[in-house]
Design brief:
heterotrimer, A alpha+beta, B alpha+beta, C alpha+beta, A: alpha+beta, Aminopeptidase, Elongation Factor Tu (Ef-tu), domain 3, 2 domains, 5-stranded antiparallel beta sheet, 8 helices, B: alpha+beta, 8-stranded mixed beta sheet, 6-stranded antiparallel barrel, 27% strand
């Protein structure tokens, strides 16, 4: 498990630049499926023919992660950038990034506190006022290493720490990708489409075209979701709790889960003795929104691994939650013909 | 009409939970239509086949109403919630809500806040009178949805109640189904789901039906109350023909058709421009290669409150106008 | 007709989003001599189809430039005959005071958006922008007369014909995106000089300014293999950030980012380099504010590129453009289309 998780989370794949993670996933799933299809937007779809297919089931996790794109190379060799996907710019000062295919190292520096007015330190720095420093002394020097439009990821390795906890970038949604890969190891009566989508973070873009192509009857999205069970956050805003198991969504901003699917997921968890929680709150949106509303509609639901500090280089999850998510998805797939 | 509106507006049916409304409407119209079905999202689709080579017309009114979904139950039995659709702070403070199982609650807010401007939905809660979490959990669970607890009143030619948005539109379609004569057109009456969450039911049903033309029926605001946002629509001056809102620019030919039909039959009407908001036509008109669409609007004061107010005459004239439009041979 | 004359003609024709009947007819007529087929759909999208002049099977390519413009709409008429209005599309209300407008009612009426004289301003009043709700159009007629000619919902356009500034610059309203439509016509002319395969649909889309609605509908209808969106982007001015604006004289702008297909965009840049056509690069971190956003996710997905013309003062009545960029962009696009030979599918892969 650990090696696959490391390979998935360390791969590069900012929305629009998913080449690296795409390769990792194709390598993993090719022996497990009948066909691997890469569509017009770069989604990877692993098709596993059913033993007695009556319906189509689509499992979905997004390959892309939030990150940055280089928007300008200044005369002094500094790089201006924009965030791709939603990132709180207050986490950026002092972080390291890797730019482009070659992983050119860069840092998001801000001026030292010795040089700041006291009032300056009270205000958040906006991303558009920040720079990435790659150590180049001029525009020409910088242009030898990076180009306009290069993407950058957080430089953040997977670390096991605490009691069965993991820190990494991109747990959202490489945990979903991990779960899908594990699910492909089973055999099912229905036609299964394991869909690793692109550009979820910039508007659920990949899922829209993938769902249109596949025309699923049932769609199950596996996500990494907000987990804010930390000090200074009121209990009713925690959303999910670390260690309490996969979170089943009743609804979020993009979709209202199909009620039969939700009941069935809860039943699966109870029957197999898998801990689970109900996601509290309807924040966030994910690929299920596009799948549910594709063509004439589909039944969809979402289960998520709780991730603290989501959309940052140091997001944290509990390995037990990931393990239980994999178990729950397997239970679901084994019985979902009855839906 | 009054009984129908009273009945429909009183049924529990927040977005994502429209089943009871769907059953009630089905009962009303079953014997008047040729086919009736429910799709995977819960849209209720009723078909009245036409007599000749008419057009394939989709009519849409949404069954769902705005609601409050329980997101957390605290130790003392108070419920935190999130909005399904446009729930505003102003229309919620100290109002009563009701759950599907009849549990009644009151919406309170964190009174330590100093200014009304600081109150947001996340600083509010529902009080169902439970003394602790266990007691509360016997009555409700996370994911349950409450709606405003409203009393229906008919007074001075007005109908006042909850969920006129868009049970009034549903009632208008039901009445149309029951009263319409022969039409050359194939009529698909779609009672949609999840409009308040983003026109979701309309999107999928339009894709499936592939209509030539569509008309949604929904409520709209008015510009006739003291110091309100200026708008040329008044309660009682007739059904409104929508020119635009934020989701759709009514197709000029559909708009023209509606206006000339009203003029031809001497039915009072108004022209409506809404500078915000959306309706099912917003989703329908962008389906596949495009569907020329319009909206028949019912003027309504206090939209998204527990006392939405419509005019009886506007409803009757709305039915008259829609029937006249649908009975015509349409060339678009 | 040359590019500048065509642009001048288009600028004067009304075509506010949703009401593009007249302008779509003019564009259909302009496309006819250069296309095998020209048609229009119920939403006023205009489709000009050119079929390739060599045997092999090439791609179906769709170009999109929008024919609608931002404008205003009559909201109400008061007892004194003053007309209140709302906006269609992103109109900056700060440019409205003292503008000359045309109201398209039962007849075309000339009007002005009135402005309160400085003599009557309160202290501090001039610090705040006047909201649109408080503005009125004066058409100089008696109220009874107006009500016979103007109805709620009538469209209002700005009177701002094309003028020439120094160099190759032109200035007027709605160059966004009538310049794109002109560029498509010029591309047809360039393509006639080249050899290409496949089919090219030149689509003048409607309702872009209110949410790329025409593009959603027309892309579904055409079902292309490749999309080329054509729009305007911000030209450089002293008050705007450098990383979001472009020089006016260094050629058209090619966009990069998640909304654009990387290999296809690279190919476009290679064609430019090989033919010594200068261009600038615009980095877009998310969805672009153009038809490209809807083309890319139509049906099963359409690999898309975006070519833009730098434009100063966008969405005002003095939009300013360098005509040279139309010529360069047209030539680049035609060469790009012609480059789609045997094995063109390769550039759509990942």
């Amino acid at each position: 498990m650990s090696d696959l998780l490391r390979r998935l989370t360390s791969a590069r794949g900012v929305s629009g630049d998913e080449g690296d993670i795409r390769k990792v996933i194709i390598d993993e799933i090719t022996p497990l499926v009948d066909e691997v299809h890469i569509d017009r937007m770069g989604n990877v779809i692993g098709y596993k023919k059913g033993t007695n297919p009556k319906r189509k089931v689509m499992l979905c996790a997004h390959m892309d992660e939030v990150g940055f794109i280089i928007t300008r190379i200044e005369d002094n060799g500094m790089l201006k950038f924009a965030t791709v996907g939603s990132i709180d710019s207050r986490i950026l000062p002092s972080k390291r990034v890797k730019i482009g295919d070659k992983g050119v190292p860069g840092v998001m520096g801000i001026k030292a506190i010795h040089l700041q007015e006291p009032s300056e330190r009270k205000n958040a720095v906006k991303a558009k006022h920040m720079y990435i420093d790659i150590g180049a002394r001029s525009k020409e020097e910088a242009e030898k290493l990076v180009s306009l439009g290069d993407y950058a990821v957080f430089d953040s390795d997977l670390v096991y720490f605490g009691d069965g906890r993991v820190k990494s970038k991109a747990l959202d949604d490489r945990v979903g990708c991990f779960t899908l890969i594990e699910s492909l190891k089973g055999n099912y009566p229905f036609d299964l489409y394991a869909c690793f989508t692109v550009q979820e973070e910039v508007g659920l873009r990949g899922a829209k075209v993938a769902a249109y192509h596949i025309q699923p009857d049932i769609g199950l999205v596996v996500e990494g979701t907000t987990c804010s069970d930390v000090p200074k956050v009121e209990p009713h805003r925690h959303t999910t709790r670390m260690g309490d198991g996969p979170a089943i969504s009743i609804a979020d901003l993009a979709s209202y889960s199909n009620k039969r699917m939700v009941s069935f997921l809860i039943e699966c968890a109870k029957n197999a003795g898998i801990p689970y929680q109900i996601k509290e709150g309807i924040t966030g949106g994910n690929d299920a929104g596009e799948i549910q509303r594709s063509r004439a509609g589909a039944m969809t639901a979402v289960i998520s691994v709780p991730c603290r500090y989501i959309h940052s280089p140091s997001s944290v999850m509990d390995l037990k939650d990931l393990d239980n998510t994999v178990r729950l998805v397997k239970e679901f797939l084994e019985g979902c013909e009855s839906l | 009409m009054i009984d129908l509106i009273q009945k429909l507006s009183g049924i529990y049916g927040p977005s994502g939970n429209e089943e009871l409304v769907s059953e009630a409407i089905r009962e009303e119209i079953e014997s008047y239509v040729d086919e009736i079905d429910v799709d995977v999202m819960g849209n209720l689709i009723a078909v009245k086949k036409g007599t000749g080579d008419g057009k394939r017309i989709m009519l849409a009114a949404h069954m769902d109403q705005i609601g409050l979904m329980v997101t957390h139950i605290d130790d003392k039995g108070f419920l935190r919630f999130a909005n399904l659709g446009g729930i505003s702070v102003a229309n919620s403070i100290c109002r009563r809500v009701v759950f599907k199982n009849g549990t009644v609650g009151v919406i309170g807010y964190e009174t330590e806040l100093n200014s009304w401007k600081d109150i947001t939905l996340s600083k509010m809660y529902i009080d169902i009178g439970a003394s602790d979490r266990e007691e509360a959990e016997r009555l409700v669970q996370i994911g349950d949805v409450a709606v405003y607890h409203s009393l229906f009143s008919a007074s001075n030619g007005k109908y006042i109640g909850g969920a006129m948005d868009d049970r009034a539109g549903c009632a208008l379609l039901v009445k149309t189904i029951k009263s319409i004569g022969d039409s050359p057109n194939d009529l698909y009456f779609v009672f949609t789901v999840q409009e308040e969450l983003g026109l979701r039911g309309a999107k999928t049903s339009a894709y499936a039906l592939e209509p030539d033309l569509a008309i949604a029926v929904d409520v709209t605001a008015t510009g006739d109350t003291p110091k309100c946002k200026p708008m040329a629509v008044s309660l009682g001056d007739g059904p409104a023909i929508k020119i635009k809102d934020a989701s759709v620019l009514a197709h000029p030919k559909v708009k023209e058709l509606m206006i000339t039909t009203a003029q031809k039959h001497g039915i009072p009407y108004q022209l409506e421009i809404l500078e915000y908001g959306g309706t099912d036509s917003g989703a329908i008109h962008l389906s596949r290669s495009g569907v020329p669409s319009g909206v028949l609007s019912i003027p309504c004061r206090y939209v998204h409150s527990d006392s939405e107010t419509i005019d009886a005459g506007d409803m009757d004239n709305g039915v008259k106008l829609l029937i006249k439009i649908l009975e015509e041979n349409i060339s678009i | 007709m040359d590019a500048k004359a065509f642009l001048k003609e288009l600028i004067d024709i009304p075509g506010v989003s949703g009401y593009e009947d007249e302008i779509s007819r003019v564009i259909m007529d302009a496309f006819k001599p250069y296309c095998h087929e020209v048609r229009r759909d119920a939403f006023f999208n205009v489709y000009g189809k050119k079929i390739g002049n060599v045997g092999q099977k090439g791609p179906r390519i769709m170009l999109a430039a929008h024919l609608d413009e931002i404008g205003l709409m009559v909201k109400d008429i008061d007892d004194k005959g003053f007309i209140s209005f709302t906006n269609i599309g992103g109109v900056d209300q700060r440019i409205l005071l003292s503008q000359e407008v045309i109201i398209h009612g039962k007849e075309r009426l000339y009007g002005v958006i009135g402005a309160k004289p400085p003599h009557l301003q309160e202290k501090g009043e001039t610090e705040k922008a006047v909201p649109m709700d408080e503005m009125m159009i004066d058409v100089g007629l008696h109220p009874d007369d107006i009500k016979k000619k103007v109805t709620i919902g009538d469209l209002i356009t700005f009177k701002s014909p094309l003028i020439s500034l120094g160099g190759n610059m032109v200035c007027g309203k709605s160059i966004d995106d009538r310049a794109g439509v002109v560029m498509m016509l010029e591309t047809m002319k360039e393509l006639d000089k080249l050899v290409f395969s496949g089919e090219v649909y030149f689509v003048a889309t409607s309702q872009e300014e209110v949410g790329t609605r025409g593009a959603i509908i027309s892309t579904y209808s055409v079902d292309p293999d490749i999309g080329i969106a054509i729009d305007v982007t911000h030209g450089d001015t002293p008050d705007a950030p450098k990383d979001e604006t472009h020089a006016m004289d260094k050629g058209p702008v090619i966009a990069v980012g998640p909304n654009m297909h990387p290999k296809l965009t690279e190919r476009l840049m290679n064609v430019a380099d090989d033919n010594e056509i200068g261009y600038l690069i615009e980095v877009e971190p998310g969805l672009t504010g153009t038809d490209a956003r809807s083309i890319q996710v139509s049906r099963e997905g359409v690999p898309t590129v975006l070519i833009e013309l730098p434009l100063r003062y966008m969405h005002t009545t003095v939009e300013t453009l360098n005509m040279e960029n139309i010529r360069k962009a047209a030539r680049l696009t035609a060469l790009f289309i012609a480059s789609m030979k045997e094995g063109w599918e390769e550039c759509l892969t990942y």
